[in-house]
């Protein structure tokens, strides 16, 4: 068993109290959003229209459906992959291997769903099951995180995450103790980060679109845009699946309640909020405005993809011709920092692109309600906090070279603003 982290190590998320609050607040917020989205006034900051009783939340059918979904995605993960890649170097200097077949899993899932729908699968009934499904996903995330916590008790020291091992059980349960928990070659964090939650998100969106078509004769333009933009985002994540191996979630954070709940419940049930809102609150959208919103999403995507690909290419092979001409700062670790190209514009150009897309996903819902802008508000807070955590980690890793980078590239996310 590994010793706890030094008690002097600063704790993220407000320490054990903050973690305890988030363990309660995140599910509560998710249920609030699900209830408010279908209520007439749809007030983000108002009280929920009613408090659901146990019979509205608990459904063995919903749990069975969720477990079948997880089983299907796990089976697709285990299918032979054409490509297997190595992750970042671990504390013991070894590297884990990861299958790259997420996009293949998306295509097979789409085919299965298509076959199911043409055979009479009532996908349009899914919106009515969101509450019990979200409850089942929350229960699953709690049980799963508990098992992960117990598994970490017998993990060797080198397998533990830099955070998440404070010795405080609530904090460690939230943040996650083990960096890459696995059974044989099945990597739980890599699997959960990209597959069941992201694909469930677009499936829920599609179900909402079909339900709207059933209710109103055809889906609205706003619903098409939200579905299209978010499908692009999810397909892009799975197409560039190996890019996730350089994100903070995989290289730094443990796998605990934050990511288990985030991946399995928060993403599918809150990221589909705009489509949920549109089903119950149809919004008029003309072609000129729709074109402007499409352009905004395209600009956001261009920055997001350009920045992420540039960094991933550079980290994989700094002499790759696509990045070899970029200016860099050497660091004492032997790794270099890009200081021109996207990463010379601001220190987190990928966050900027992601935020622009978040705005484009909300605009089709009009400006009469704050609710569809929840994602933009939450995401801004998440990225500002994430950026601060990343800065701290980079300062620790790169010291003076990081100071030099901050001097050369003074803005964090938005040029000349922040
Ligand atoms: N939709 C959603 O809910 C969420 C989406 N995201 C998205 O996920 C993506 C990944 O985000 P995240 O993991 O936070 O962070 P990044 O992908 O930005 O990774 C940060 C790391 O990049 C490396 N880096 C930083 N600056 C430079 C530089 N100048 N040159 C080379 N390498 C550099 C450092 O690691 P090292 O030097 O060790 O390589 C740093 O720790 C982003 O696009 C973000 O928008 C994130 C959270 C939630
Ligand atoms: C406090 C709180 C709500 C924590 C949970 C946060 C998680 C929902 C997010 C943390 C990082 C994420 C990433 C993506 C989805 C959301 C979570 C899990 C991501 C998979 C979305 C698609 C992108 O292309 C991505 C692969 C870059 C991204 C990685 C980070």
From TrEMBL:
Its EC number is 1.3.1.70. It is found in: Endoplasmic reticulum membrane; Membrane; Microsome membrane. It is an enzyme of class 1 (oxidoreductase). It is a multi-pass membrane protein. The keyword Transport does not apply. InterPro entries: ERG24_DHCR-like, Sterol_reductase_CS. It catalyses: 4,4-dimethyl-5alpha-cholesta-8,24-dien-3beta-ol + NADP(+) = 4,4-dimethyl-5alpha-cholesta-8,14,24-trien-3beta-ol + NADPH + H(+); 4,4-dimethyl-8,14-cholestadien-3beta-ol + NADPH + H(+) = 4,4-dimethyl-5alpha-cholest-8-en-3beta-ol + NADP(+); 5alpha-cholest-8,14-dien-3beta-ol + NADPH + H(+) = 5alpha-cholest-8-en-3beta-ol + NADP(+). Coiled coil: none annotated. Its main location: endoplasmic reticulum. Pathway: Steroid biosynthesis; cholesterol biosynthesis. Keywords: Cholesterol biosynthesis, Cholesterol metabolism, Endoplasmic reticulum, Lipid biosynthesis, Lipid metabolism, Membrane, Oxidoreductase, Steroid biosynthesis, Steroid metabolism, Sterol biosynthesis, Sterol metabolism, Transmembrane, Transmembrane helix. The chain crosses the membrane at residues 17-37, 57-79, 100-123, 129-150, 254-273, 285-304, 355-379. Belongs to the ERG4/ERG24 family. PANTHER family: DELTA(14)-STEROL REDUCTASE, DELTA(14)-STEROL REDUCTASE TM7SF2. Catalyzes the reduction of the C14-unsaturated bond of lanosterol, as part of the metabolic pathway leading to cholesterol biosynthesis. This is Delta(14)-sterol reductase TM7SF2. It comes from Ceratotherium simum simum (Southern white rhinoceros).
